[in-house]
Amino acid sequence: SAPLLSVDDLHVTFRRSGGPGRRSNTVRAVRGVSFELQAGQTLGIAGESGSGKSTIARSLMGINKPASGSMLLDGVDVAHRRGSSLAAYRRTMQMIFQDPYDSLDPRMTVGDTLLEAVRLRKDRVADPRGEVRALLEKVGLSRSFADRRPRELSGGQRQRVSIARALSVDPRLILCDEAVSALDVSVRAQVLNLLKDLQEELGLAYLFISHDLSTLRFMADQVAIMYLGEIVEMGSRDEVFERPQHPYTRALLSAVPEPVVIDRTVRLPRVRLTGEPPSPTNPPSGCSFHPRCPLAQDVCRTTAPAARVTASGQIAACHFAEPEEVVAAS
Ligand code: SF4
Ligand code: MG
Questions:
Q1: How far is the CA of 54 from the centre of ligand 2 (A)?
Q2: What is the ipTM of this complex?
Q3: What PROSITE patterns does the record tag this protein with (predicted)?
């Protein structure tokens, strides 16, 4: 079936001032990113900070304007929506951020925050207060929470309130940008389980952005690994975690602390990641990962690798990605 969200060859650049008296630089934050997300599914996007994950989120929210490429939601480009089409888009896609402190008004009670959101709904709600109670119940909070303010809530409770607010307009897609990264491990697991239950119940799709691979392993159906503005590997969760093709993915997985490296039947050579990612104002020649890649050869310094697609549909942009499995190069 047609994907709910289809991003094709997205490029996003912006100017960053180099400080007083310095030239401003063009940051090439996203370079040719393509992916699809089906209704009811989760796509996880991983990568170090500065890899372009949050720029994708900001582009979908209309904050960053793409230089080129398309972002189709239900077949209509997000960047071209105006008026009622834009309003419909804002109901279809909701966001949850790392720190709900930034997005919840500290002076408003939880009940008023949710009431305000319920009133943005397309169809008039007959009993808005009843709807607020139903939303609280959906996210596992008792109705007494309606009278509290954000500072009276724990981090996990605040994140439940932002989930309730996102649900208030019946979205089909929720963009989660490091949504559980600030929570401690046990609370994080509770919120992730809640998101999974809601997905099952409501058929929600999630675009789940996180630097934390164990979170993505738990949440995602498909996983994309970003490096310096590009997707270097993408595939099903099991493919990416159990049979990673790209040296960068292997390096990220090698860095995960022991207890969360899940599949022990596959022995991967450990790839140690050294140094910092280069600046996105001036990406390296050839393969962007070559200055940090322990497997780099001469060809990597001069020639950008084409994305190779394996028989199962896993994509890896590396000259040496399992050639025997490759069925096509794009
Ligand atoms: Fe490493 Fe070369 Fe593959 Fe890039 S193309 S990931 S530098 S081996
Ligand atoms: Mg970020």
A1: 4
A2: 0.93
A3: ABC_TRANSPORTER_1, ABC_TRANSPORTER_2
